[in-house]
């Protein structure tokens, strides 16, 4: 693939639900190593850029991945409730280039082949009028709101779950967008995004302690690598 893309990986020091999760030991290495290792195997990645407010994270990156570019997160953009779109806006204002992919260190099962294919799909989708892409997980199940109102089915008609219309979860694995699309609305998801469906296991995002344990178990099992070998013949 001739076109290159910069990857943004925001990594703040504080984590409310899983303490120090970005640098916590994951199968023998800090968690963030997994996404870096995956990105470094993707041919279309021009640069990895980390925005952080943590001196400890900066130290670990400098010692383990010296080619990664570091951006100091301003105090005004620090904290648990700052919109990621504001952080992205700050980062791309300091960088050159037109196309960006934003991901997280909390996606340790994300495979290089998936990233490569998503970038390829993004550039192909631009020709069809799409202006951005983000990863989703497809669900075919019966959903209700807090008041027990059905969201995607009629309880009076108990059809098979596999026959339900799919519902898509924004799984936070990655977002791909252009500078112009982002600046148009100030957000990573544009006016006409392409929904990129992912393997449910690979898409696990670590938000809670049980997510961490589940991701470690899957990583140790090698199931994703076996799936990749089967897929590649």
Give the arrangement of secondary structure elements.
Elements: E1 5-10, E2 25-26, E3 29-30, H1 32-39, E4 45-52, H2 55-64, E5 69-72, H3 84-93, E6 99-103, H4 112-126, E7 132-139, E8 167-178, H5 179-185, E9 193-197, H6 209-221, H7 223-231
Structure description:
With 233 residues, this protein is of the alpha/beta class. The chain contains seven helices and nine strands, in the order βββαβαβαβαββαβαα. Strands 5-4-1-6-8-7-9 form a seven-stranded mixed sheet, with helices on both faces. β4, α2 (55-64) and β5 (69-72) form a beta-alpha-beta unit. The longest helix is centred in the middle third of the chain and has 15 residues, at 112-126. The chain is globular, with a radius of gyration of 19 Å. The two termini are 22 Å apart.
Instruction: State mean pLDDT (0 to 100 scale).
Output: 93
Q: What's the total count of β strands?
A: 9
Beta-strand share of residues: 15-25%
Helix-strand topology string: EEEHEHEHEHEEHEHH
SS-derived structural category: alpha/beta
Gap between N and C termini, in Å? 22 Å
Largest sheet descriptor: 7 strands, mixed
Globally, the shape reads globular
Low-confidence stretches: none
Strand order of the largest sheet: 5-4-1-6-8-7-9
Helix content: 25-40%
Q: Radius of gyration, Cα only, in angstroms? A: 19 Å
Quaternary structure state of the chains depicted:
single chain
| Total helical segments | 7
């Amino acid at each position: 693939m001739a076109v290159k893309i910069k990857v943004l990986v925001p990594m703040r020091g504080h984590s409310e639900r899983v303490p120090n999760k970005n640098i916590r030991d994951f199968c023998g290495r800090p968690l963030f190593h997994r996404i870096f290792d995956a990105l470094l195997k993707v041919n279309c990645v021009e640069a990895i850029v980390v925005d952080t407010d943590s001196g400890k994270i900066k130290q670990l990156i400098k010692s383990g991945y010296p080619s990664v570019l570091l951006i100091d997160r301003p105090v005004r953009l620090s904290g648990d409730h700052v919109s990621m779109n504001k952080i992205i806006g700050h980062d791309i204002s300091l960088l050159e280039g037109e196309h960006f992919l934003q991901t997280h260190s909390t996606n340790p099962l994300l495979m290089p082949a998936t990233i490569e294919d998503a970038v390829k799909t993004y550039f192909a989708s631009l020709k069809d009028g799409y202006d951005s892409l983000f990863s989703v997980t497809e669900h075919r199940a019966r959903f209700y709101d807090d008041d027990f109102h059905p969201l995607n089915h009629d309880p009076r008609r108990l059809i098979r779950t596999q026959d339900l219309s799919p519902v898509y979860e924004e799984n936070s694995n990655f977002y791909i967008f252009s500078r112009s699309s982002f600046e148009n609305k100030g957000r990573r998801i544009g006016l006409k995004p392409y929904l990129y469906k992912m393997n449910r296991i690979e898409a696990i995002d670590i938000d809670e302690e049980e997510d961490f344990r589940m991701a470690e178990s899957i990583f140790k099992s090698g199931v994703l690598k076996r799936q990749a070998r089967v897929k590649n013949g």
